[in-house]
Amino acid sequence: MSRTPDARARDNQTRQIQESITNVEKHFGELCQLFAAYVRKTARLRDKADLLVREVSLYADTETPNLKNGLKNFADQLAKIQDYRQAEVERLEAKVIEPLKCYGTLVKLKRDDLKTTQSARNREAKQMQQLERMRQRSPSDRQIISQVGVGRITSSVVCMAESELQRATMDATRTTRQLEETIDEFEKQKIRDIKKIFGEFVTIEMTFHAKALEVYTTAFQHIQNVDEEEDLEVFRSSLRPPDYQSRLEIVRANSKTSLSRTGSTKTKSGTLQTPTPISQRKRLVEDEEDEEDEDLEDVTEDEN
Predict the structure, then answer these.
(1) pTM of the model
(2) What are the phi and psi torsion angles at 279 (to 5°)?
(3) Distance between CA atoms of 55 and 69, rounded to whole angstroms?
(4) Contact 266, 272 (CB under 8 A)
(5) Where would I find the beta strands (DSSP E) of the chain?
């Protein structure tokens, strides 16, 4: 039996609803999985950054004062960014992933509604076919067979079939109207949720990156404010022994004394006197002693 225009229209409607539900089930499922993977990657990045913060802090403890302070402040700012990243992860899970997960349940409910409507339509079509077969088997002239018992039974069965068809048609119409209403509401909710979910995603990401930009700027300033020259002086001092400065002052003092002595050996004309060799100094002393002896002898002779 060929389908009536109304039945074909309802079949087309059912097909479109089925396609819409299938698309939501497929793509929302994919979006949910990808957003969940995005959040997991963000959480892993947070964990790696925490390790980086720890390593920077440990390294800072081994460095000179200014660099140590700069690295400590840098690590603190980096840790603060990870706090914002943790908040980002939690918000994405609550505002993006959870609403997408809910569509698994919603799609299942809409499929149940579609099945209910389809069952009602199938019952209507079945009753219509049954009634059509009964009418084909019944004699065309009811007045002739109205006096016959079989004719009366056949007529009663046809009436019952017509009543069943009427009830089936009413049930199919009711469920179809309910399906149209619920699918219309489902479509509205889907559009609103898509706008809200993607809007929340963008807002959460913008908030994180705005906060991160502020903190990164502060971290950059801390590391750039490290006094290189002062730390170099500290490093150079650490290479010298503790008494290095006192010994250096002694050496300088000795150098000044030596220069003073050398200056005192200069003559008034400004020339340096040549030191007398030891052998010459000995001969001079002997000559002086001989002269003294001669003087004594002369004095003795005079007294005599």
Answers:
(1) 0.66
(2) -60, -40
(3) 15
(4) yes
(5) none
